[in-house]
């Protein structure tokens, strides 16, 4: 039975209860004197009218597309109003620089919709990010780099670093500020890997790594900016953990596949694109493949093929007919000087990848020397096609020597014939010896600044050259002269010279009172530890005692760790040292 209203009161109309009664879900009785409601007066509360929203029964839009676009515009407005996340350590809330152009809301929402489409190239002047651009701009603003230093670091990357892995073209007239506006994540990655100060570089790398893990992999849509930045950070960063050698290659391969730049532009929509069209999403189909996209996909192949060859834990990005087309287009277009170098490096990498897969997967139908001859013929064709301006280029020579090592490793793994010397095998072993010697001599001829410009691909090749020379030095084959190896390419002498060279280079990145953070100090320690780990086996192979039995030509797996893993790992060693040499 309903209770009767208090005297001298009137029940409030529907939807007109005061804020207190509405919050308490209690009936509201307005006093006749007009001074509020009976409940608020009894409880001695301030009676405030509730906020009402008038329900509008407007005409429903006849266009589903218009409704979806309106919702997307609303979502983008909310994203743009949101404050940047404070999850990333060390980031400060900074205002947007006045030099960064603001994109109108309608354009921003449109770019966010098209960024999710498969295979759509990012226009150079558009930041097509799915996450909040303010979060990325805040991170860029938090990096303590002056405009003058930023220009110097960009110049170093453009003239020294990128020539070793030319997956992008940065025109000489482009300034650091222009690159930051057009591709902020790419710019940030360049700043992270070229900072000349050890502690500053470590700080930037940590911030960028946190941002990648917390934001890029979750909130941001695939774009060329993100792809180029990830390729740069992984290939040159002096901050990385062991697991990231496997994580980052898969990330950049995923970005390539999501952008669709490894395959032709589709003539008809995919199943997902057709579904998006059916529910009202606009699909902007690209009409042509850009040169930027062609370089990026070939660069991704170079990076992943190098990781596959060094770690044997992943496969390279699958080579497709469209990538072959991109290789041909870059060969003929010659839009920039680095395209010829990129084409040559990719051709060499293709030969290496084939030889690697043969060794890994095996084939018992043909003799190993049949494949060695075939791969060597392919390598000779690539060498003949190298332009004259690149025949003495260090990055090309590094890759040629490594390709020969990979090809002729097949002979090192083949069983020896004790009674009759296998001349083909001996020829391959000699070729491997000369290739390892060529590679290491080339390494010792580099300046300290060139060491800092080397990407992961070169460091992986260094590990192969050292390991190959070690195997040749201790190879137990009656027909193989280990003393000849010692006099031709003495591994201990190479390690001594590398140790000395790194010590002489320590002043290049000296950090007061913290020498352990100097990349050259740690590289020197690394080479010295490798020497100490390998010297006993080498001395036993070169100067065997009468009591020594047959020598095991495998790498010694019982050696103690060559570096204290508590040492702060940044620099030449942290990307490849522990995985490649840590178990020897």
TrEMBL record:
<dbReference type="GO" id="GO:0008270">
    <property type="term" value="F:zinc ion binding"/>
</dbReference>
<dbReference type="GO" id="GO:0000981">
    <property type="term" value="F:DNA-binding transcription factor activity, RNA polymerase II-specific"/>
</dbReference>
<feature type="compositionally biased region" description="Polar residues">
    <location>
        <begin position="99"/>
        <end position="115"/>
    </location>
</feature>
<feature type="region of interest" description="Disordered">
    <location>
        <begin position="82"/>
        <end position="122"/>
    </location>
</feature>
<protein>
    <submittedName>
        <fullName>Fungal Zn(2)-Cys(6) binuclear cluster domain-containing protein</fullName>
    </submittedName>
</protein>
<dbReference type="InterPro" id="IPR001138">
    <property type="entry name" value="Zn2Cys6_DnaBD"/>
</dbReference>
<feature type="domain" description="Zn(2)-C6 fungal-type">
    <location>
        <begin position="17"/>
        <end position="47"/>
    </location>
</feature>
<dbReference type="GO" id="GO:0000976">
    <property type="term" value="F:transcription cis-regulatory region binding"/>
</dbReference>
<keyword id="KW-0805">Transcription regulation</keyword>
<dbReference type="InterPro" id="IPR036864">
    <property type="entry name" value="Zn2-C6_fun-type_DNA-bd_sf"/>
</dbReference>
<dbReference type="GO" id="GO:0005634">
    <property type="term" value="C:nucleus"/>
</dbReference>
<keyword id="KW-0804">Transcription</keyword>
<keyword id="KW-0539">Nucleus</keyword>
<keyword id="KW-0238">DNA-binding</keyword>
<dbReference type="InterPro" id="IPR051089">
    <property type="entry name" value="prtT"/>
</dbReference>
């Amino acid at each position: 039975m309903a209770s009767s209203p208090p005297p001298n009161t009137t029940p409030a109309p529907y939807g007109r209860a005061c804020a207190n009664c509405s919050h308490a879900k209690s009936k509201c009785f307005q006093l006749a004197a007009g001074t509020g409601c009976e409940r608020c007066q009894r409880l001695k509360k301030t009676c405030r009218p509730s906020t009402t929203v008038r329900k509008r029964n407007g005409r429903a839009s006849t266009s589903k597309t218009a409704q979806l676009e309106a919702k997307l515009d609303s979502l983008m407005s909310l994203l743009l109003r949101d404050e940047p996340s404070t999850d990333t350590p060390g980031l400060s809330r900074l205002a947007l620089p006045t030099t960064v152009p603001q994109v109108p809301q309608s354009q921003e929402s449109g770019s966010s919709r098209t960024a999710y489409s498969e295979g759509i190239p990012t226009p150079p002047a558009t930041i097509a990010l799915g996450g909040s651009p303010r979060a990325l701009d805040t991170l860029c603003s938090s990096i303590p780099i002056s405009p003058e230093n930023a220009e110097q670091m960009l110049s170093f990357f453009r003239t020294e670093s990128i020539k070793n892995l030319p997956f992008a073209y940065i025109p000489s007239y482009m300034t650091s500020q222009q690159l930051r506006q057009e591709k902020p994540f790419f710019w940030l990655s360049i700043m992270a890997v070229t900072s000349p100060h050890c502690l500053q570089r470590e700080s930037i790398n940590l911030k960028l790594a946190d941002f990648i893990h917390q934001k890029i992999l979750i909130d941001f849509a695939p774009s060329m900016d993100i792809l180029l930045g990830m390729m740069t950070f992984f290939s040159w960063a002096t901050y990385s953990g062991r697991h990231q050698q496997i994580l980052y290659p898969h990330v950049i391969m995923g970005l390539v596949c999501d952008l669709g730049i490894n395959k032709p532009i589709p003539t008809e929509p995919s199943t997902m694109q057709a579904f998006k069209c059916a529910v009202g999403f606009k699909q902007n189909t690209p009409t042509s493949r850009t040169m930027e996209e062609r370089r990026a996909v070939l660069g991704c192949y170079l990076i992943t093929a190098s990781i596959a060859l060094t770690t044997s834990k992943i496969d390279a990005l699958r080579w497709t007919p469209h990538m072959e087309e991109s290789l041909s287009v870059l060969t003929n277009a010659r839009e920039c000087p680095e395209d010829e170098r990129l084409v040559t490096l990719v051709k060499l990498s293709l030969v290496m990848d084939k030889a690697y897969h043969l060794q890994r997967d095996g084939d018992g139908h043909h003799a190993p020397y049949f494949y060695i001859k075939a791969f060597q013929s392919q390598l000779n064709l690539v060498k003949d096609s190298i332009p004259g301006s690149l025949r003495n280029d260090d990055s090309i020579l590094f890759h040629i020597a490594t390709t020969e090592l990979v090809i002729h490793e097949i002979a090192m793994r083949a069983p020896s014939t004790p009674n009759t010397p296998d001349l083909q095998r001996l020829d391959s072993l000699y070729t491997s010896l000369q290739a390892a010697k060529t590679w290491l001599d080339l390494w010792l001829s580099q300046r300290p600044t060139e060491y800092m410009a080397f990407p992961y691909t070169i460091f992986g090749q260094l590990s192969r050259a050292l390991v190959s020379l070690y195997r040749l030095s201790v190879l137990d084959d009656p027909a193989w002269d280990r003393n000849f190896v010692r006099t031709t390419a003495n591994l201990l002498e190479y390690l001594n010279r590398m140790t000395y060279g790194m010590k002489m280079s320590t002043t290049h990145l000296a950090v007061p009172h913290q020498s352990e953070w100097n990349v050259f100090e740690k590289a020197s320690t690394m080479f010295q530890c490798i020497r100490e780990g390998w010297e006993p086996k080498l001395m036993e192979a070169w100067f065997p005692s009468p009591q020594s039995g047959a020598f095991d030509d495998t790498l010694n797996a019982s050696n103690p760790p060559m570096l204290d893993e508590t040492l702060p790992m940044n620099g030449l060693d942290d990307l490849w040292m522990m995985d490649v040499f840590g178990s020897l």
